[in-house]
Amino acid sequence: MAFDPKFNNGDACEGRYAKGIKRNMMIQAGKGRRKKFLALPNAQRVWDFMFETGDFQTKYYDEYDNELVGDEENYYDLIDRREPHPTYKTVWWNDFLRAMKDNLEQWDNLTEKQIAAVIKMIDRADEVKAEREIEAEAERERSDHVGVVGKRQRFELDIEVCIKYEGNFGTTWINIMRDADDNKIVFMGARKMASCEVQTEAGFVDWIQCTKVSFDAMVKEHGERDGVKQTILQRPTKIEWPEEGRAKEAV
Fold first, then answer.
1. pTM, 2 dp
2. How many CB atoms lie within 10 A of CB 12?
3. Which residues, 6+ apart, have CB-to-CB distance to 244 below 8 Å?
4. Coil, strand or helix: which one is 28?
5. How many whole angstroms separate alpha carbon 115 and alpha carbon 191?
6. Which among 25, 74, 142, 156 is placed 20 to 30 Å from 111, CA to CA?
7. Alpha carbon distances (Å) from 133 to 93, 104, 139, 143, 193
8. Domain-embedded: residue 33
9. What does the alpha-carbon distance between residue 116 and residue 118 come to, in Å, rounded to a whole number?
């Protein structure tokens, strides 16, 4: 229908009408480009990967770990956690992949060479995912709990990673460590186990990065995460950082 001012009660303008026509034309042109693109070999797989649909669908869970499916009312208000597809999480999102996604969002199209390049990266991510699954299964089989729940003992551990978490009560560090048998040991608290306080020659206090730590602690819980047994500790005391695990420079 052409623009007719007498039907718009003075509220509309011809410029706004023209912009609406142009927008609709762009939408229709985009649908056509997308249909043509999806007809190309492997294009659907690329599209699903880029936008986390189809075979690469992201899963959503509520606070009780129930998977949310369908289009129920207030769906988005129920989301507590999103879990991307393992392949999607494995891919290293570099500038090339981001540019390809931008092209699809703007133009609904990629060249056949671009499709092939993206598919190659997805295939490599699948290989890495499979390798990690094999490693994870091996860890599940060999993992074991350490100590007796409710009793204190001495631990000599290698520090794997310290994860910082900001909550309502300040900073919490999730310290993930390993013993000599490669069992997972976890301590959650205000202390970052990988930071060792030292005195400089000038008498100042400084901090250095450490990869090893020993301390006394109580075994709080024998738990399990993703099928891997882990020992949860609490109230560490008499903390020491062996010299061989200390960095040469302060952090």
1. 0.59
2. 14
3. 212
4. helix
5. 48
6. 25
7. 21, 31, 10, 15, 29
8. no
9. 6
Amino acid occupying residue 18: A
From the list 22, 21, 30, 24, the residue with the least C-alpha distance to 107 is 30
Q: Are 30 and 105 in contact (CB under 8 A)?
A: no
Number of H helices, E strands in the chain: 6, 11
Residue 170's domain comprises: 152-250
CA torsion through residues 51, 53, 55, 59, sign:
positive
What integer pLDDT is reported at residue 59 of this predicted model? 87
Per run of 10 residues, the mean pLDDT along the chain (length 251 residues) is 51 58 57 87 94 89 79 66 87 89 91 95 93 91 95 95 86 93 94 79 71 94 92 94 69 46
Q: Which of 112, 141, 170 is the last residue of a domain?
A: 141
Q: Strand 228-240 vs strand 184-189: parallel, antiparallel, or unpaired?
A: parallel
Number of compact structural domains in the chain: 2
Distance between CA 152 and CA 142 in Å, rounded? 24
End-to-end CA distance of the chain: 69
The answer to whether the beta carbons of residues 93 and 100 sit under 8 Å apart is no
85: in domain: yes
